[in-house]
């Protein structure tokens, strides 16, 4: 997030796109509701009718995969009506003329044909976001999990800069991270092309710094993304896989292909707190301590690095992740002799400029938001206040592209996937909670009443959902949440594994993110 969670409630306008915030980020949704109580206008754009749609001043259901066209259409109208931040554009951005020219084609009528959003709704969305300042823009995986995910994010950034909403309190571009330490994992180099703090492995300076700190020559070649790892396993080029706190057998696309590939591994190691579906097929399972059983830090969605304090001793023979990794590295010939997380954090701050001013003791109860470059720096509440890191903000020309799959005669439905309120990710933790499991004990498929009537389907009837990659069975949930011609499947249930259906070949060309959010499918009533 460029801004902070608390700032959301002081926004004059909030635009939420591709995020079911009240179901997936309920504490952040509380800030949205507080903002509404203070008079903020709320815009919600989502292919489904989510809970927040009920509270929105404007709520639209864009066609799955049409976000770039919707965002470009808003910018077209903002420019047409003179709602853009002219001084901000002139002083703080570059590429405006090229962007302006590219937006001329996104007339309300063309946008309606692509997205299904009416010109009137598009005009109202554009006016609210273009005229009410500051405007906070929130998004999540409904934007990123597309074959055009990077383009979607660029279009969002264009819209925010065009209206002068970056570098101001209660505004910004705010991706809501999917798990509590996704931001921290990325900050710590949990990406194939960077060291900590996003220092590129290809940078001679960064490579030399980390090679010296870790006393080993390090490769300057970026590693593999997860989809590329699966391809390498299938091709016999990758022989061993070490999975930490992840359940790819349920979370990665095209389960049948993934399962086939993983059988070729010589060694599968899984380190987790529960015996997940992936761990059940592992050669070695390393028992990790849970959150309340260990010390350390994590960094949340608003860039806030927080201390984690142990409440209870680890169960059984489980160990904190850092200790397991140290023991494994030492056994493999590279001694890692840290005594505690405080010592590890010292190294982090010494090697990571954005964490340089942080210390384990200084984090206290409230933590510190990066960048924090010096010991007397208070941390940064929102980014880009006076200038962008690169100097001027880059406005990118982004053209609409169809998703990789569109419905056809054989597979006539749009299929999308996501979370529901009671469960989390692949259910590794939430489905072992009796209270949460009672809320939703099984998977389901959301289907509109019009489609259910055409198929003679009643609530709870078992349906067969098929795609080009496979088929699953799930009970019907008849709901106006999905539009006619659309299906929604939650991702949490191993008995109804959504990722049997999703596409492992449709990837964003830059980020290599699979297109989880849109595909084509067929649905039929299961005949006993």
Describe the structure.
- By secondary structure, the protein is of the alpha/beta class.
- It has three domains: 5-176, Dimethylsulfoxide Reductase, domain 2 (3-Layer(aba) Sandwich), CATH 3.40.228; 182-369, Rossmann fold; 413-525, Barwin-like endoglucanases (Beta Barrel).
- It has 18 helices and 21 strands.
- The protein has helices at 21-24, 26-37, 67-80, 86-92, 96-103, 108-115, 119-131, 141-144, 149-162, 182-187, 204-214, 226-234, 248-251, 255-262, 321-331, 341-351, 434-439, 449-454, and strands at residues 13-17, 41-45, 58-60, 93-94, 135-139, 173-175, 240-244, 267-272, 284-287, 296-299, 304-308, 368-369, 393-394, 413-418, 445-447, 462-467, 470-478, 486-490, 503-507, 514-515, 519-525.
- The strands form six sheets. It has a six-stranded mixed β-barrel with strand order 14-18-15-17-16-21. It has a five-stranded parallel β-sheet with strand order 3-2-1-5-6, with helices on both faces. A three-stranded parallel β-sheet has the order 7-8-9, with no helix packed on it.
- Strand 16 (462-467) and strand 17 form a beta hairpin.
- Helix 3 runs antiparallel to helix 6 (108-115).
- The radius of gyration is 24 Å and the shape is globular.
- The termini are far apart.
- The model has no long low-confidence stretch (mean pLDDT 95).
